[in-house]
Amino acid sequence: MSISRRKFLGWLGAAGFGSALGNTARAASNKHFDGYPNSNGVLFDNTRCIGCRKCEEGCNRVNELPEPERPFSDLSLLDAKRRTTAKAYTVVNRYDDIVSEKGPLYTKFQCNHCLEPACASACFVRAFTKTETGAVVYDASVCVGCRYCMIACPFEIPTYEYDKAFTPRVMKCTMCYPRVVKGLLPGCVEACPTEALTFGKRQDLLKIGRERIAKFPERYEDYIYGENEMGGTSWLYLSGEPFKDVGMREDLGVTPAPKLTAGALSVVPMVVGLWPVLLTGIYAINKRKGKIEKQEKEQAVVAALEKAQNEAEAKLSEAMEKAEKEKAAAIETAVSKALEEAAKASEEDAGDTAVEDADKKSSEEDS
Amino acid sequence: MGKGRALLRWNAIFVAVVVILFLMNSPAVFGNETQPKKALEMRADIIQIDSMNVFGKLEKPAVTFLHQKHTDALEKKGKDCAACHLSEKDPTLDIERMSTMYMRLKNTSKQEDMDIYHDNCISCHKETKAAKEPSGPLECGGCHQEQVTVISSWRPIGMDKSLHYRHSKAQDDKCEKCHHEYNESTKKLFYAKGKEGTCRYCHAEKTEENRISMRLASHIACIDCHRRTIAKNESAGPFNCNGCHEPAEQKLIETVKDVPRMKLNQPDFVFVKTSASNPKKSNPATRMKLVPFNHQAHEKYNDSCRVCHHAALDDCVKCHSLEGSKEGDNVTLQQSMHRLNVNQSCMGCHEAELNKQTCAGCHTSFEKKRQQGTTSCENCHMVPPSRITHEVQPAEQKMMAAATLEAREAVTVTYDDQEIPEIVTIKALMNQYEPVKLPHRKIIKTLFNNIKDNKLANYFHHEKGTICQGCHHNSPAAKKPPNCVSCHGRPFNAKDPFKPGLMAAYHRQCMECHKAMDIKKPVSTNCTACHAKKT
What we know:
By secondary structure, chain A is mainly α. Chain A has helices spanning 5-20, 54-62, 118-122, 148-152, 177-181, 187-191, 202-215, 257-266, 268-348, 351-366; strands at 40-45, 91-95, 105-109, 128-130, 136-138, 159-160, 170-171, 197-201, 235-238. The two termini of chain A are 66 Å apart.
């Protein structure tokens, strides 16, 4: 049996359309979410950051991460662009190739704690939870180590303990969830000497950000990064230069990551449940149709053959009949003609010669 | 089958040839050095010949013409501007003037103009080539190039005070040599004494009816005069592109330090006029105090009259009336004096002065806005209006303006040394470091010495506590202003979200001031430079 490409696509379309119709269900972790009303956030203002790495040190201390190879006071590390690692939830990078009177600018990288986290939506064991404090936290006890979260994160933040053979974990900033629920500040915020990091309710931070831009329009880009990026993040940013120049992605759009996949993923249960039935059915129907077709074809061939044979026989006999008729007619005409001539001759000459001629002619005809 | 094999063979040969050709261009294989991307040559004489666009869309890329390259080449051949530019009688002045157009006096038709360029350019290039001299291109693509290897270093040039003085001196103060007015009826230029103004008042960016653009006017008039003067073997300004527009050569233009004042009946001292015609129209009860203005001093601070008198050499109030008028683009007199972010207004210009290193330390952290407060208004608004009766100010009133300004206390003052704590010990962060010893008096002395010779600053720091307000902000000027800790405490107070905590208040106050004043030491990231290690 064979299915044409067009047909196959047609079925696929029908199946897709069917599942889209009247189906608003989404996969469990992809429920639409507008953010917890009183969730916390941190506002990073790079015009205040002096690049002292105190935040990295504070983070390391409160999270009891392993001591780094080079001390936090070693600022030469800023000469290279770094990424978060399993041993450093946050890193500060320096951007001094910007032609600016404002001097070098710094960007602090850590988990942005998205309002609708991509990591959580990618995780099929629900190891990630967006908590009411705003923090996106990770539960190592359920993690199977697939690292889909690392691929899903648009900010490339989660990291993996590759050096642990038996209990590797995904590592990322927790916005100091355990500290915040106790009423303490996140380690980095507490350590920052200039309040380049401001901790507060996300709603208030947006107000503070707008206020700073309004008061010092020449100092800031008129934009709060994270207000809408990927549907909004708990970590917000103010910058003195365009965000793309301080190592931040400007191509992310405003759609939360789960929304991008929710439509397709909501079809998964249906695809798993219904498609085998549907496709098997279509296959069976198609197969039966082929079988019937084959039978009919065979019958038709037999019938056609019989018909052709009969026709041929009929034609042959007809032709033979015709030939015989013609022969008889020819004999008759020849005989009558001879008789006439003979009669004529007997009338004119003598009766004997006429009869002889007639015999001669008829014998010629016979040969 | 045999056919297929032949096809395959040919295919293989073709691929091999392509690969070889490709490799031949590749420096990696054949060791050719990669040609470094040619750096664009900086030139001040680039002219885009796109004059054909008046006849519609260009058929070929515009020609990037290097003017000085041609004038230099012609000079060597003993030819001058007339080799390419025609002259005609200027009807407005009845003298012969050279057109800035190439080999024609005006645009006629597309074909004709095109022919003028093609015939003349190419024939000259051909002749030069025939004479075995370096010459220009002969083929289309040689001139009509999409990709150019030059980049403009062109800089505008303006008639500043020094240049103007040198010109008027060379012309024996004959202003009519350059300044003119246009008579609509006779269509002639004439000189109106006392009405001289900046060229740009009339000659705008683009040529308008009856008045040519600034670009055209300056090239016709300046170059014409320079050329004629040099022809008489007298010294004159440049008449090539670079002489005026090349940044390096601009610096060679002689500047006169102490330029005598221009003479145009401008006042020395004056009350800023608030009403052009009808002084009784405004309500005397709500009238602001009048502003005596030192016109003479402001002439010195600026490079040309145009900085303030941006549209005409008239009283500000002529266009910027109290209520705003069409002539003044509905900018009222009040706005025209107080607007920030513009150069022409008093406050806009004064505000820009705050970016100076000596001022920025304190002022960088202040929001840029009009500081409302009687004392700051009265720095300028000094004289009650009742004392001035006439808008046309007689000499004695001007003298009064002068006297008021003279009497104004223009000295930066602060408290005596013994009244200022010498060292302030900051005991925050004692869990990590020893207390910080802030050289409190030294800081105030430095700030004071930085501005004590700045006349503008002196007008605004005549209260003893004003300098203190640089750090002790949001507090009235006082001998004992509140400490930092009076207001700043724990950070991130949701009820007072805009106020930094104590640690950030200290650090930002110190660091941002040091950064704005370009103080290199102590480095912000060196904790122990201020906080001594705990022993």
